[in-house]
Write a structure and sequence with these properties.
Shape: elongated
Distance between the termini: 121 Å
Order of helices and strands: EEEHHEHEHEHEHEHEHEHEHEEHEHHH
CATH architecture of the largest domain: 3-Layer(aba) Sandwich
Strand content: 15-25%
Structural class: alpha/beta
Number of domains: 4
CATH topology of the largest domain: Cobalt-precorrin-4 Transmethylase, domain 1
Helix content: 40-55%
């Protein structure tokens, strides 16, 4: 600590105190009038806070300068203002994604919504309470599942219409995706009640990202029907699609699924089986449906399973022979179509290149003109 006197333009006597202490994050200068520090001796061992406490309060607030600029303070004030605005949620139905296994896989925004909501709708209150207790969230819970969703809707709508903030969560992952909530969300949209998604964990996206299968196009099928006929019909539809197919499979039905899928898709179709994702015993198995059917016929895996099957390979259409193309061109031209229109129609109906078809059309017309000029 150092202090000394200085003169201002108005000849007012001030003491300049240079305060440097491990208690302060930055060096700072504090200007006090000399009257405030008369009778005060410099004690180097005193901390800055002790010295300031002994100073007589001046008639004006001291001028304070620091290495921190006023812009930093203004920026902090603006940030605090923005944070307070962000903490204010509007009334509506919030679809909050929750962890699929690891409790740390939750967003800060999701936690803020769950803490700010008036009520949280959940499939299983006992299961969801573990997550809420982990993050010390005291918001009341209300059970909402497929067996009571119709009777709950009226009560929930009234709360939303009165300005409540209602959060909807599932046991794991994103609500309304193979989980209850779709009907409630649809009802809210029809009533012009805001429906706000709070994105986060998703089993299907986590599985396809690490599956090693094509991700540019995929179809989420979810759980298959329970009836054998309906289940096989759905598998036949998926077998003919070129996009990667994603299924949710209960562990006790995995062998049945693989047996039916390998017979419909074929043993050589590539697949990936994701089990217990984000949990301690997370496992990814990759291979063909035939291999999976043999391996998992003798073992019964546990935990939630997401199964992905590679889409059907896009077949390359064979290019028709020139004789076939000429036959189609001759028929179109004889029916009154111009050469350009005939070429266009043939090109749209085949995989042959338009330039090649046009050359055939010119050759065909040349033969026809030659036949007219030199008849037999």
């Amino acid at each position: 600590m150092y202090y000394g006197s200085t003169l201002t333009p108005r000849a007012t006597r001030y003491f300049l105190l240079l305060l440097h202490s491990p208690m302060l994050p930055r060096r700072c200068c504090l200007f006090w009038p000399s009257s405030a520090v008369s009778n005060i001796a410099a004690v180097p061992s005193l901390s800055c806070s002790s010295l300031l406490f002994r100073l007589r309060k001046p008639s004006f607030f001291p001028r304070f300068s620091s290495t921190a600029s006023d812009d930093d303070a203004a920026e902090k004030q603006q940030h605090d203002g923005d944070s307070s605005k962000m903490s204010i949620l509007k009334s509506g139905l919030y679809l909050v994604a929750t962890p699929i296994g690891n409790l740390e896989d939750i967003t800060l925004r999701a936690l803020r919504v769950l803490k700010s909501a008036n009520v949280i709708l959940t499939e299983d209150t006992r299961h969801s309470r573990k997550l809420l207790q982990y993050y010390n969230i005291k918001t009341p819970l209300l059970s909402y599942h497929k067996f009571n969703e119709s009777e709950r809707e009226t009560t929930i709508l009234k709360r939303l219409q009165h300005g409540d903030i209602v959060a909807l969560i599932s046991d794991a992952g994103t609500p309304c995706v193979s989980d209850p909530g779709f009907e409630l969300a649809k009802l809210c949209t029809r009533q012009n009640i805001p429906v706000i998604p709070i994105p986060g964990p998703s089993a299907l996206l986590a599985a396809i990202s690490a599956s090693g299968l094509p991700t540019n196009e995929f179809t989420f099928v979810g759980f298959l029907p329970k009836r054998t006929g309906s289940r096989k019909e759905r598998l036949m539809v998926s077998a003919n699609e070129t996009a990667t197919q994603i299924f949710f499979v209960p562990p006790h039905k995995l062998h049945q699924f693989l047996d039916e899928a390998s017979s419909i898709f074929g043993d050589s179709r590539s697949c990936a089986i994701a089990r217990e994702m984000t949990k301690l015993h997370e496992e990814f198995w990759r291979g063909t449906l035939g291999e999976a059917n043999k391996i998992f016929s003798t073992q019964q895996p546990r935990g939630e399973i997401t199964l992905l099957i590679e889409g059907k390979a896009k077949s390359v259409a064979e290019v028709p022979a020139d004789d076939q193309l000429e036959l189609e061109l001759r028929e179109l031209i004889s029916n009154g179509h111009s050469i350009s229109m005939a070429v266009k129609l043939v090109a749209e109906g085949t995989s042959a290149k338009r330039k090649h078809i046009y050359a055939l059309a010119l050759r065909l017309c040349g033969k026809q003109m030659e036949a007219k000029e030199y008849p037999d």
